[in-house]
Amino acid sequence: MRIQLHSWLAVSAASLILATPSFSGPGITVEYSAVEVVETEDSMTKTVVYSTPTMERREISDGGQKMISIARHDKKVTWMLMPEEKMYMEMPIGQSAEKKEEKTDLSAYKIDQTPMGQETLNGIVMNKGKMVMTGKDGSKMGGFMWTTKEGIIAKLDALSVEQGKKDRFKLEAQNLKIGKQPVNLFEIPKGFEKMDMGAMGGMGDMGNMMKGMLGK
Length: 216
Description:
By secondary structure, this protein is mainly beta. The protein has 3 helices and 12 strands. The radius of gyration is 18 Å and the shape is globular.
């Protein structure tokens, strides 16, 4: 059981810290939920998202296991929940972004958008724009972006070129619903035990890898 748990922790951390995107645009003042489908050249990921101006919950199912992250910007902390084990990890917000800039993390890019009028997407009138995304390292992605009147990014189709290689990146927020979200979604469930990050030293190479990903 211990080996199985350690392996799952590594998968959870890699999925939630490194692969989970952040798609809410700046200055969003509404609450909403959606299923975000992200496609790259190598993979496709579906994430259930519940978002408020100061909190965000993301749920990913992988191989029958559910992985949950809760970002509390009001507390400047992120919790990673492991429902099967009733355990959670805690880290400061922004820690993973400082370790590694990911293409799927839109918060790591400066986005310049040129308006192209309006277009209806899934029954909702969207603002469409041509955009150029510039990363902190100077890398660029170009394409088209669709946003709601509230500023929520509902669709994105972009292409990047690095060292002569082209990479396609797509996002679509399906079943988008704007409305009040239950407060308990953004709290640690009762009965969950906090994982002692210092105890990872006893996990050998696995613990060192986890601590490295978390910036410890």
